[in-house]
Amino acid sequence: MTASRMKIQNSPTIRRMPAYLHRLLEMQQEGRESVSSTELAEYMHIEPIVVRKDIALTGISGQRRVGYHVDELIRFIKNYLGWQNPVRAALIGAGALGTALLGYDDFAHYGLILDSVFDCDAKKIGTRIRGKEIFSMESMEERLKKSPVSLAIICVSSAAAQSVVDRLVNVGVRCIWNFANVSLRTPPGVIVQREVIAGGLAMLSVKMKNSRLHPGAEILE
Amino acid sequence: MTASRMKIQNSPTIRRMPAYLHRLLEMQQEGRESVSSTELAEYMHIEPIVVRKDIALTGISGQRRVGYHVDELIRFIKNYLGWQNPVRAALIGAGALGTALLGYDDFAHYGLILDSVFDCDAKKIGTRIRGKEIFSMESMEERLKKSPVSLAIICVSSAAAQSVVDRLVNVGVRCIWNFANVSLRTPPGVIVQREVIAGGLAMLSVKMKNSRLHPGAEILE
After folding, report:
1. Residues of B with CB below 8 A from A15's CB?
2. What's residue B1's pLDDT?
3. Which of A67, B67, B136, B205 has the greatest CB tally within 10 Å of its CB?
């Protein structure tokens, strides 16, 4: 008997949420109290009706003429994504991509705490990259047992990814954000999100193709 | 009067295409001649019906019991994405993220030729990163006039991105893949794809939330 299956709905909406949140957090910094769906649509390069549908999914209700309260909308989006509480994460692989992720300031605003960074390069171990100490791959299990994380970000090579993930699963990690270009095998109950960087290139390519077929049209997502 | 608007349909399907292609190219290397939707579904961690719908959009027809011919499916996916002909691209910003993209081997299989790499760091200019010579930001216009590109990949800081894109648009670049965490203003006819790295984190977070609400269920995309 197979376990029940649950399909994630609204994935384009979910993927847009961090971009809304990024702009709303900027607005909060600027002291803005409210925002209209039209303004968010211009920022996102999508239709206002899409913005209204996206935001309706968070459960907030806008007010006629006022739009959405910035603080409230931030709270609703964070709740929708489950970002109201901080999550501790490990980063495995501090190469170019791992280093880029360590520099992604928004993670802190989203409650993602990059707690432990591991790499196999002896020259990096014990040094700091973007303020984070780099630990050896050999020490991974020991350290994660002492300081458990909810999430691991995989930035190792495709060839190394499966064995790293097996080790992480063995010490109880149940949630994997996989940047290696490989499909991972994991036991039931482990959640994997695979990032395929070329997914964005595919989107761009289809937009280019459509703009050749429909010259002059504004291509919206 | 506003220009006509054209909404991109099927964005989750489009985003999945490079992952199918990646696996199919591996199979081609392995000498495999055919593949079933069930096998691709297992690889992608999605339902077979979703695979069949995705692939049907490319216009190919599968054969009962045989499945899809690997070579033919590769060709149909490349045509669907407009990847049948090579595209020359410039990379702006050879920091950690830019360096990671230079190491993404699949781009070559997708016909993306990273032709010119620019950076503002005097220490990098004239050196090679992953085999690519780094040119100065000052030389960007001159070089792109001599060797035009169809596409520019923006890996500079958010603060620098808009002025870099303005310069690219001025020399005729009409297609921007933006990794800076900022919404760009571009004139009509310029196509922009913004990558929000936290989009994947949002997907993962919603999967985590659903797995808490429906323990034991397999969470599919």
Report:
1. 196, 199-200, 202-203
2. 34
3. B205
pLDDT at B219 over 80: no
Residues A60, A76 contacting (CB under 8 angstroms): yes
φ/ψ of residue B175, rounded to 5:
-145, 120
**Could you tell me the pLDDT band of residue B74, with boundaries at 50, 70 and 90?**
very high
Strand runs (DSSP E) across A55-212, as ranges?
A: 68-69, 87-92, 112-119, 128-129, 132-136, 151-154, 175-178, 191-194
For residues A15 and A13, give the distance between their C-alpha atoms in angstroms, rounded to a whole number: 5
Note the ipTM here.
0.94
Mutate to test the interface with B, among A10, A15, A76, A119 (most CBs of B within 10 A): A15
Chain A: give the shortest CA distance to residue B81, in Å.
Answer: 6
Architecture (CATH level 2) of domain B87-198: 3-Layer(aba) Sandwich (3.40)
- In tens, the pLDDT along A2-19 reads 457 777 888 999 999 999
Is 1.10.10.10 the CATH classification of the domain at A11-80?
yes
Q: Which residues of A touch B183 (CB under 8 A)?
A: 19, 23, 43-45
Which residues of chain A make contact with B200, given a CB cutoff of 8 A?
15, 177, 193, 195
Residues of A in contact with B205 (CB under 8 A): 81-83, 87
What does each C-alpha distance from B197 to A75, A175, B201 come to in angstroms?
A: 21, 17, 7
- A114-173 tens-digit pLDDT: 989 999 999 999 999 999 999 999 999 999 999 999 999 999 999 999 999 999 999 999
In this chain, the answer to whether the domains covering A11-80 and A87-198 adopt an identical fold is no
With b for 16 or more beta-carbon neighbours within 10 A and e for fewer, the B90-124 pattern comes to bbbbbbbbbbbbbebebbebbbbebbbbbbbeeeb
B18, B81, B191 member nearest A211 (Cβ):
B191
Q: Quick: pLDDT tens for A29-78.
A: 999 999 999 999 999 999 999 999 999 999 998 777 789 999 999 999 99
Which chain A residues are closer than 8 Å to B103 by Cβ? Answer: 96
Residue to mutate among A1, A51, A204, with most B CBs inside 10 A, is: A204
Q: Considering chain B, what percentage of its residues have pLDDT values greater than 70?
A: 99
Q: Which two tokens stand for residue B142?
A: 């001159």
pTM above 0.90, yes or no: yes
Query: Which one of 1.10.10.60, 3.30.390.10, 3.30.420.40, 1.10.10.10 gives the CATH number of domain B12-81?
Result: 1.10.10.10
Q: What is the DSSP letter of B45?
A: T
In a mutational test of the B interface, the residue from A53, A193, A195 whose CB has the highest number of chain B CBs within 10 Å is: A193
Cβ within 8 Å, pair A198-B16: no
Hey, where are the domains in chain A?
11-80, 87-198
